[in-house]
Amino acid sequence: MKETKRTPVLPPLLLAPLCALTLFAGSAFGEELKRPNLKIRGIYGGIPYFSEEDKRPLEELGVNAIFLGSGSITAEKVEYVKSQGVKFFAEFNTLHVASYLKDHPDAAPVGTDGSVSPPPHDWQGICPTHDAYRKHRMDAFRDLLVRFPLDGIWLDYHHAHASWERADPEMPDTCFCDRCLSRFTEDTGVYLPEGSVEEKTGLLLGDLNQAWVQWRCDVFTSWVREFRSIIDETRPGTLLGTFHNPWTDSDYEGARLKKLAIDLKAQAHYVDVFSPMPYHARFGHVTDPQWISRQVKWLGDYLGLTGQKGEAKKIWPIVQLSDWGEKVSPDQVVQVLEEGTAPPASGVIIFAWGSLRKQHEKVEQIWPFYRQIR
Predict the structure, then answer these.
(1) Domains of the chain
(2) What is the DSSP letter of 38?
(3) Model pTM above 0.70
(4) pLDDT tens per residue across span 236-270
């Protein structure tokens, strides 16, 4: 009897990567995709395959940077990542440690009526002029640098009391506590007449608004300046980065400056890497992934950065591939990465491994892309 030649049937675990490669090759750039200036291919929120059963080398995946929240960092994780020649970065919470208020209620932001401002969508901020809280965070920042040989620390939640990480942000006007009002007068020389809190806030949000907005931005920038000085004193050469709001100056009527107090140009004196958070699905642009590259391009123009070799400051956006609110379809993975790696970006970070690791159809498209642009 003549033997019949059969085509082998591949198991599902082998089929997934091949399908992903096919999708990747069919992308807009396909095999021609090049990112010669892209130096960082990062993952936020976990270490891929960090288990005894499956420790795939990160370089095999194309990953060369890991970002973890400071509270989940261990010596074992740092050693594992850095032993492979991969960079290790920490995310550091600055003004969102809500548990601090339990024993220090005077650190809660105050609204326009003189009462404590409720946490919008349960996002609890802290008054930026509370000296004890500031020292608490600076001490924690210094301790992190002393304990671990990090390649960089990224500031997170470094903005005023608000819930902006969504399509319908809630950004109350704060903080009008006695401490902030006194500091405003001391720092600016602008006199606030005697009267109720409502009368004073009326002035600060009216005729004196320009001075008030600038002062608030300066307060938040002063935190960044102090973080920079701690790095320079404790572990020179460590990068200082920031995960920040991705809006332009005109988005939401200038809310990045007026409501959130994020002055990117002022912070650029101290920050090495800017990581805007253009989470297209979360922010209502699920059908428009090109919104990612438009926002990053705006930031480059705003800061005078092109992504070319030799620039002192860098832009490494963090892009959404995991589901948060709106779902990110697997067929968007490659385009999201294409948009997030376009100049002026010189690095990219994927959000977020914690939930992505269970979404194999997405994951198996990430590694071919990262290897392609390596």
Answers:
(1) 34-179+209-372 (3.20.20.80)
(2) -
(3) yes
(4) 999 999 999 999 999 999 999 999 999 999 999 99
